[in-house]
Structures are given as structure tokens and as C-alpha cells.
Amino acid sequence: MKLYSVAAACLFAACLTPALHAADAARFDLIGPKIDVRITRGSTTLPIAQVPSLQAGDKIWVKADLPSTQSNHLLLIIAFLRGTTNEPPDNWFTLIDTWDKKNIEGTTIVVPQGAEEAIMFVAPQTGGDFKTLRSAVKTRPGLFIRADADLNEASFQQQRIEHYLAAMKGVSLDDPKAIQERSAKLAVTLALKPNADCFKQPVDQQVICLTQSSAPVLLDDGHGQTIAEALSNGPSSDFINQASYTAPAGGGLYSAYVGTIVDAIQLIASLRTAQYQYIPGLSFPEGQTLNLRLNMPPSFHKPQSVIVIGLPAIQKAILPPLKPHDPNQVACLLQPKMVLSLEGAPLVFATSFAHDLVLHLNRTGAVTDLPLEADPGSGGLVVAKEKKREPLKPNEPLKAAPTAAKSPAKIGASTDLTVTGTIRGYWGFDAFEGPTLTVQQVAGKEWKIVGNTQLLAGQDNKLTLTGNCTGCIQHIALSSEKAKDVDVTFKPDPDKDKKNTLALDVSLKTVQPGGYSLAIQQFGDANRDKVPLTAYTAGITVGDLKIHAGDNLATLSGEGLKNVSSVEIAKQTFTPASDSNDEILHLESKTGVSPAEGSEAIVKLKDGRTMNAKISASAARPSLKLVSIKSTPAEQPGALAVVLTNKSDIPLNGTVTFVVQTKDAFPRDEAIEVATANNAVHTKLSLADNTLVLQDANTAVAHLDPLKAFGQSAFGRLAIRPVQADGTTGEWIGLGTLVRTPKISAIHCTDANAPTCALNGDNLFLAQSFAAGKDFAKPTDVPTGFAESTFNVPTPTDGATLYLKLRDDPTNVATVTLPTPLHKPTEAAASSAPTAKPNPPAPPASTASAPANTATPSPTAAPSTPQ
């Protein structure tokens, strides 16, 4: 006989007795003889593949389909059994000589009344063969009843598994999504549980793993006296948990025969006699042909082999308990391949027992019966575009269902959105009615996104879409005018109470924030419906917003705060200050507010969204009122006084006295912070260090030595603010501009008509420019980086006052006054006087006395008036 390699192997070692170890190593990979079988009930004939059970009075037509070169004579023996302790009569055994010409057209046998099981034997012709076999069955009928049941169950189980294997081998090896979807649908329809570990393998190894390296576990088939129930009462109850793979000879082939088939082998092998050894034959019906697979080659020498084959049980039909996979499912009549997702009866999808199925639409004015066919890989029954069925002879078959039009979208004229449809068909010879489902027959509409979920760019998102009917949605994409469409995964909402609702998985990892739309494509509709939506900036969170009562400043914490455009607090708009960052947002407004503690502020984002922030309101911040300020330059011996003409300028080299008042009593633990605008330098004044002195309960006098507090490099706008003991600060109040002045020791001029004079001193770089008049018509600029002690300046126009602008406040003018004004000489004196050399160097103060026209500070000169 021809060897036949199959994807299934046998794993026996842990289950069989030592006497059966030889059988353990064998696999059911040998093709046995083919036997054609048809069953006639009344006037209807069906092929064996469509017959789940027999009844008394059924006519069994049997014919051995042997090759013309068959040399060994084989016997076919049909036996009927009626109980484990009730041996059958002799006339319940039928012998068929397969080589006899009278049996070439087949033999018909009638199922006798009272029969409960039917079993078939294929045996070699020997002397006394028929009587010997009949005697063996009559002697031990219970063993053959159990063997018949086990063989049938094992065949059913293997058909489920092989449907899974065959369907998985057709999936692309590089498409993980398709692999998982196909496996999931097959698992539901065939009641299997594939090995989840296979999906952890590399993509190109997943299908191989699912079909050759691990076993799908068989689950309860949910059909009448279930396989699981039948197995749970005997040794084969371990089948469900023992399904596994083995690798005999390195093959790594699937073992579908771990429980029930082991029992069958044990049972049948125990019937071994001196003349015969019995071997099991698994049947895989296809049409009217029983295809047999054997686990060992038959022997034609003593003990000769007898193949034992299970036939359908003789019992009342148990109709398939089909049920919808999802009670809320809506099938789409516009879909070219409409799928009715069903479960609960795996033999509907693993065998041909269910046939001539139709979906009867409960409507008028159009086609009402649509032919269906089982498609476990699609997850249920699908509408067949064409229904073909060859009638069987000699009797007429069941009446075939009407043939559907090739395009399901044109099968009806009804304009109702949905109708109901009932599954009808035959289970063997018996008509049955399955579940009633909802069918959508026109395109849906009224789409909208529900819930408060917002799309966030840069991450995966979940949305919920509703409409008046979602059954005909073919494809959904995130669409925009500028970017490529992004596919959106969708499925019915897992909440069974939500009909016409889809759960969407939207990946926006490569999408920029902005306006988009959900483009919804439905079967049978060339246009796409669009639902506008916005992809917002991700990574934005807001924390608490802190503000003091009556304040116009607030602070918001969180993440991604650079995307905040404004915040509304107590109906007042606050905008971000320039010193804000992504985690701390400083806010300011023109008017102060006093929100309630725990109330909410409305945070408006640049992308148009709004978010709420909880307000943490504190007591009013401390406040001060500046009553007066007086700055006094320090006297510098040996130096000319630099007079600041602007009252807002505060000399660094001097003292500052200012007076402040508070509305309530000045707290004794409160300090006053003094700092430049950029906070480059700062100090605190307090009662404790005597830099603050209370004039009365509400008035304090502050004393500040800027040079001592800030150092020689301090300059810029100076401000003060109150600071409470807990660190709470008040608003800044401006004092003026802190400026540094150069130390001018002397100005040397030849005479009043000379163009320049030589100026001596220290830190001359603190001056930005000098001029002869206050209009600064022709200033002389001090170069950046100048560090000399002598600089040529314009001769004062009036002979007495030199004007300068300070580098720390170039908008205002300071002056230096010569103690002795310069006088222009007479014309005669001027003509006889020698020509003055320009810019004479100034003699050192320690070695040369000043000439009569040299301006030097008077030792008794009064200091300049404080500004």
C-alpha cells in the first residue's frame, strides 16, 4: 500500500502498556483502502460525509473502491450492535466479497430495528474468516461498541485539527496580524485553543510553530452528547489536556491521537487472536468516500490484519447548537463575502454534516434565501456566490437552495436599514433552524465620536464611534489633505449593551497635531463619509494653580506648559510671563483677582483645547508703599565730584535711605528684599540687623549701602519687595537705577581755546562718552575695553562744566565742574603765545604741580547735592 505523509503524528509512550510499545511508535500516516458509502432514508440519498447518524430502516450502500491491480482479496463486513451485554444476531452481519462481480455496483444493507451501533471491518480472505470475526464480535460486543465510539470521536477530533492546520498553512508567513486573526477565527469556529507561545516567536516562525511544533487544545464542541462529555467518562478523558507534539525521527509532527485514539488502539489490539490482529482505521469522509488512515501496514500472514472502521451512531439526530459569536453582530448584505460569525458547533465547520444551508431573510419584495457555506478561516458561514450541487444516484437529493446572484449587493430591493435573517439547513437528513441574526442592507450614516477621549499626536489612541448601523463599514482611515492616510483598526464595542458602536484603535505616532477626519468606507459605497476631528499635542498635564488673594500674578505647575496660551481665573485672563518654562508657568494680568480655594481655572491651550486646573488660593501677599527715597554719594578725597542730574539714578558709591509704609502693622519678622531687575545681585534688610528701623507701627526707614551690599560690579534697575517669614513675597517696587561713576582726579587744559583737555582718574571706562556741552553735539566716546588712567576729553565750551554719560545709564547726563573756570586769552596774547601741542600728557600728581589753568578739586569743596 502507498504511504501517505500527513501533518499528524502519534504520541503513545506514556499511555500504552508494554505490549503495545510497537504500536506507540507508529503514526497514522498510511493510506488504507477507500470505501464508498451512501445512505438512503426514504427517497433521499446522502453521501456518508453528510450523515452524522443513522436510523433503523436506513439503507447503507457500500462499495469498495479498490484499484484494478488489487491482488489480495478483501472482505467487507458490516455489523450492527445492540448493547454491551446483548450479543447481536447472526443476520446482523453482512459479508461482501469485494472481488465478486455481483458486488461491483455496490451492496445495500438495511439498518435493523433495535440496532444501536454500526461497525465495518476490512479483512483478508481466509478459510473461516467471516465466522471467526462474527464470533469475536458476538463474544465481546461491549469492546466493539467502545471501539466504534472511540474511532468516531477520534475522527471527528482529527478533522477539526486538520482544518485548522490546512487553513493556517495558507497564511502569509510575514504578516503577524493576519496570522493572529486567522488563528483566532479558526479557534472560535473549531473550538480549539492554539498555543499562545507560538505568537512570541519571530514572525516567520509563527505559522510553523502553530502547525508543527505545538498542539491546539481541543475544547468542548458544544454539540449534544459532547465529545468532551463522552471522553470525561473514560480513560480518554485526558485527551484535551494531553494534545501535544512530538518529533519522531526528527519530524516534529503533530500528534492528534493522544487520548481517544490511544484508547481505541489499546482496545482493538486487545482483540488479537491466533488468526487475526485488529488494527484501527480512522475515517476522513469526503463526499461518498471514506478515506482511511492506518497506523500500521496490514498483514496478510497469520495473524492477519482486520481493519476496524467506525460508522455513524444509530440514534436520533442531535442538531448543531449554533450561536452568534457576538449577540450584537450585524452582518452586511452589501459585503461581497458576507460573514456570519458563529460558534458553538465545531462539527459544522470541520465536517459536511451541515449542508444546503441558507440565510432566510425575513422580508418581502426581494430574494429571501441566500445560500451559505462554512468557512472556518473567515470565522463562520459566508454567503456563497454560486451554489453548485451534483445530484446523487440512484435517488434524488434534497432540494437545493436557490442560487444567489453573483453580486450580493444586488440581491434585494428593500430599503430598510436592517432586516433579520434566520439560518436554515439540514443536519444530515434532518432540517434544522439556527439563530436569527440582524442583517444590514443599506449603508449606515449619522457617524459621530462619543465620549471625552481626545486624539493625541505622537501616541496610540482609542476612540468610540457610533452610527445608525456599523455592520457595513469596510475600512476606516485617519485622513488629511497634507498627510498620507493612517489605517484605523476597529471592532465592535466590547460592551455587549452598546449596539452600533465601534471601538477604534488610532495610531498617531507619526502624525503631527492638527485637523484631520475619520474617513469611513462602507461596502457598496464608492464615497467615504468623513467625521472631522483634531489631533492634539501630547504630553500636556496641568497641576495646581497657586495665587494669592487680590493678586495679578499666579503660578501653574505641570508638563508641556509651553503649549498654554492663557488661563482664565475668576473671569480674568492671565497670560504667560517671559520667565516661564515647560514645567512652571508664571502668569500675570492687569487686574488682581481673589478666587475661592479649590475652585477651577480654565487653561486654554494653543491647539484649541481647554483643561481645568485646581486653584490653591492663599492669603494676600504682603505689600509696601514707597513714601520717599534719598541717595547720597560718598565723598572721595582727591577727586572731582561727578554730579548725577537725574533723580532716579542711585550712586553705587554712596548711601540710600528710603521710607516705606504698610496698610497694617509692619510685621517684625518681615524683611525687605532689594535686588536688581535681573536678580543678579540682591540683599535683605530687616529689623534684626538694624537696616530697618520702625518709625511707627506702619512706617519703616531703610538704610542701604549699595557698595557694601552688592560689590563693585552691581548696576541696573533697583527694586524692593516685602518678604514674609515663610518666604511669601510681595510685588516689586522700583527704587531707581543703580549707577557707578568714574573717579576723576584732575583735568589738564592748556587754555580755553585748546580743542582737548587731558583727564586723569580711575575707572574711566564707567563713562560711555564725554562732551563739551550738554547737547552732546560732538561727543568723545570711551572705547570698550579702555583701562588707562588718562583720557583726552573735549574742552568745556563754557570753560567750567564737562558733560558725560555713564555706561550704566546712558540715557541721562552727569557733570563734572572745574573749580577754576578757563578764560580765553586776549588777541595780542594769543598771537604772541606759542602754539599749544594737542593733548599734552598730564604729569603725575605726585611729581608735578598743577599749572594755573589746571582744574583740581578744592580741598574745601562741598560734595554734590544728593539726587
Q: Nutshell version of this structure?
A:
This protein is mainly β and 867 residues long.
Question: Would you give an account of this structure?
Answer:
The structure is a single chain. This protein is mainly beta. 12% of the residues lie in helices and 39% in strands. The protein has 11 helices and 58 strands. Helix 3 runs antiparallel to helix 4 (176-190) and helix 3 packs antiparallel against helix 8.
- SS field, number of helical segments: 11
**Kindly, what is the distance between the CA atoms of the first and last residues, rounded to a whole number of angstroms?**
123 Å
Percent of residues in β-strands: 35-45%
Mean pLDDT: 80
**Poorly predicted regions:** 1-26, 224-259, 388-412, 827-867
Tally of strands:
58
User: Rg, please?
Assistant: 52 Å
Shape: rod-shaped
- Largest sheet, if any? 11 strands, mixed
Q: How much helix is in the residues? A: 10-25%
Structural class: mainly beta
